[in-house]
Amino acid sequence: MWMYLAQTVADPNAGTLIGSLLEQYGPLGIGLGVVLTIMMRQNKNSQTRIENLEKQQQEQHQSHIDDQKEMITEYVELVKNKTKVLADLTGCLKAIKDTLERMERKSD
Q: Dihedral of CA 62/68/72/75: which sign?
């Protein structure tokens, strides 16, 4: 705590604030200024952490979306390939059927 107060007093912006508070309000003003400075620093640190967490969450969200897009693309390719195989098989079966029907007609 004392280290933090020493840093606050050493800060040039805080020094002018504390000096003016000392002139206007005395020792109570200094205490109020130190508390106010500590609160402003904590608020700034908290804001930075929140921004970092929001950025990390956005990156994670984008990563999940990209993974989902890739999975859908792979699924579409799989369906196309399976459809092509089924079409080829259907064509083969139709050719076999036609051949069998022709052979049947020739034998009759």
A: positive
Q: Tell whether pTM > 0.85.
A: no
Cα–Cα distance, 45 to 37 (Å, whole number)? 12
H helices within the chain, ranges in order? 2-10, 12-25, 27-107
State in Å, rounded, how far the first CA of the chain is from the last one: 107
Per-residue burial over 6-23, b = 16 or more CB atoms within 10 Å of its CB, e = otherwise: eebeeeeebeebbeebee
Q: How confident is the model at residue 1 (pLDDT cuts 50, 70, 90)?
A: very low
